[in-house]
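In response to reviewer comment 3 from the previous cycle, which asked for concrete evidence that the modeling workflow produces usable outputs, we include below a single protein chain processed end to end. The sequence was submitted unchanged, and the resulting structure tokens are shown without manual editing.
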Amino acid sequence: MFQIGNKHNDFPFYRQSDAMDCGPTCLKMIATHHGRKFPLQYIRNISKITRQGVTIADLMATAENMGFKSLPAELPLQILIKKAPLPCILHWEKKHFVVLYRITDTHAYIADPALERPVKYSLQDFLLSWQLDEHTTTGRALFLEPQPQFHSQEIKGTYNTSLRSLWPHLRDHRSSWLPVAITLLLATLCSVLTPLLTQRIVDSAISEKSTSILLLICIGQLLLFAGRLFTDFIRARLLYKMGARISIQMLKAYLDKLMRLPLPFFDNRHAGDNMQRVTDNQRVEDFLTSSLVNFILSVVTIIVLGVVLCYYNGWIFLLFLAGAAASIIWANSFQERRRVLDQKKFKVLAANQHILLEIFSAMQEIKLTGSEKLKGNQWLDLQEKSFDLKLESLRMDQFMQGTGAFINEIKNVLITGLAASLVIQGDITLGAMLAITFICGQLNAPVLQLADFIRVAQNTRFSLQRMAEVAHEPDEDPQPDASLPLQAVTGKDIVFNQVSFQYGHRHSPMVLKNIDVTIPSGKITAIVGMSGGGKTTLLKLLLKSYHPVAGNIYLGSQPLTGIPAKAWRKHIGVVMQDGYVFMDTIANNIFAGAEERNQERLQQAAKMACIHDFFISMPFGYDTVIGSEGYGLSEGQTQRLLIARLIYRNPAFIFLDEATNSLDAHNEKAIIDNLNNFFPGKTVVVVAHRLSTVRHADQILVMDHGRIVENGTHQELIATEGRYFQLIRNQLELGK
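The workflow returned the following structure tokens.
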């Protein structure tokens, strides 16, 4: 059996913040053991973690980037015990990574980032999780040895996720501080005067049997209550206005940041994760406009009423202080458990967002494939997990709050008993006792609010950590506002010089291999080949969606990597095979970011795309709303709209990826004829399979397994009877 924790545990331990973070977290633990603290986000970035997590090959590449020498091995248990250099990373249960930091003849000590703390296993239980199969004692391990560069390299990716990072959002609303502060002071003043009036009622009005004094004091209490109520209303309105502005400001900054990030960021994350971070923004806004103000009010109230309480009796004040401190310390002791639960809830809610988006967007496919029950069960499983987490959170909060309330009540009983004994001894008056009791009652709420503030502040910091993961991602363009004049790109060839590319780390397979070719300016270049040959990937390099891992792409003599992506994309037009139609009017879909909006050009572009007649037959013509929530288009209509968008853009460079594969033969011929009249003077790259699309190209590149295996015109390639000839023959079914 295994045991949680052990006396030998001096190994640095971290928990994974994401279900896919076990590998990077193991690297973080080992790096910390060797004296370097790498931020987890930095390790995640260099590991190129995907939605499926990382492999041993990914960890090897990441460890080498961190300055380790890595050695993967399959070895038997006895070798692991006697000769293995520790700590090392183990492949655990064939789907997870853990750190083995100590092993003896009887026990193994494991730092599992998915658990609360390190675990001590018996060797029998250790083998059950580590061995490759039940018939062997062999398992997989990754050994790491720090090299000189491990200690000397600069660590990037450290950022501030403390609550102090919220200061800029508050600083931008300084004009709202003064009225809020005034309402806080008035509310505190009302709280101070109320117990004094209570004492006067007992010590003066009742003892002197004066109804006039009693009436006057009661009127004063009502006025104080009304004053506090009025200030609370005013403060709530001020905070609502400030909160709305802060919320809009934060969400706008978040969306702006998302739009500045490169495409690989979105490839490796679910949409639900990014959507759930909107909820994190809301949590931060609530903290700034509600919890923080209540905290300040609580502190001011405790200080002022504490001074008054100390004035009445110092011992009672010290007793109250001890009870309050015990309550706050108790509330703060649940930070780690709350962090773990919060991260689990975030992932479940993000997964819930993702599956709902999938269900709503793929309803037709779900019905056609009979997947209703499968998708329904997937959603139900997430609800069960969400229910369990909420129940666990409720239990923890009940235990924390219940025990805190019990501590608070013990404090109240002791204070009441002490005050009563002081009255009996004649040290204070009965009115003073009632005033003390009232003050303690008034102070209970602020103390509970302080304890609650600790909980909210912890949750807010967890949200800030997740938001910082996005905020500190490097932008796609260091200089997003840089311009690129048209004359700077006109008449220049695109040159590939020994370009290679791979998705992921350096141990991943190469998708493009040593591409050496020139795409001539003002000419049509077609790229053909079998599926998976690298055609679309080559196009994505031209779009600056990705960058080569070796070699360079030049525009004339200028490296394409040195041209800002946003400036480059102003001069290109693209129709991808998975192009998107926005939920907007037809006209706005065709304009799509164009600075000039010309109705005549709009209709001319639609005519060239052979879809003008369809658009004017729509209920509101070009003002008809289309997209996911509007009028649905067929795949062929969508492609023609995207072609119209490209024609209206009138770019210097045109990139087409299977842009006509959903069109019927009649429309395809008409559109290709129109495009051939539109292409002259432009640099065109066409990825296609159909002979009709590529046969008139000035240059045809044939790709196979990431390489260009043939290059020439249609007639030249047919004459050689090579790969291109085979593709054409298979397409036309010409036989041998």
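Residues 1-8 have pLDDT under 50 and may be disordered. We consider this sufficient to address the reviewer's concern, and the full set will be provided in the supplementary archive.
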